[in-house]
Amino acid sequence: MSDDNxxxxxxxxxxxxxxxxxxxxxxxxxxxxxxxxxxxxxxxLVWVAxxxxxxxxxxWALRRLGVTVGRGVSWGLEATPDxxxxxxxxxxxxxxxxxxxxxxxxxxLQDEYRTGEVVVEDRAMIGAKAVLLPGVRVGxxxxxxxxxxxxxxxxxxxxxxxxxxxxxSARNWTTETTRRxxxxxxxxxxxxxxxxxxxxxxxxxxx
Length: 207
Prior knowledge:
Largest sheet: 6 strands, mixed
Structural class: alpha/beta
Number of helices: 5
């Protein structure tokens, strides 16, 4: 990604690159990146955070993982923090992380792996099944729609959606709503024409 894109909210300038020796892909060398016992312990704590019925238990597990957890954080059912580097996650006060969402702080690529801090600022909301990639920052009061892939920073107060996630606006919503209405009208017109055609055929057949 270019420097211009990074300056405009990209994440790559915050991501650290760690080359691996090869010839295999970088995931084959994960034991060189993180102690096995630490990853096993993280995995167990991640499951507590995912399935625990009480928010207090979830936040306890997140803190034991090394996640910075603010006051009043609500961690949804099945939501998953990074299992390798959860200590790179920061959750501000009153953050909501929705059902089955994922916060990633690492990427295993072919010749290197990358790590990056993920920050979700105060009162931000992450929708169900959304994915945050390493190095992104979600601003204060921002909202990430369900099923979105966040590949760059989300400005404070903004609402983003899609793959990759982009800003939502009233104009975009109106345009999509208008398109749906037009499609429904065209479908109704076709149905009316079909009904009239069937009536003509029936009348002609009775003569």
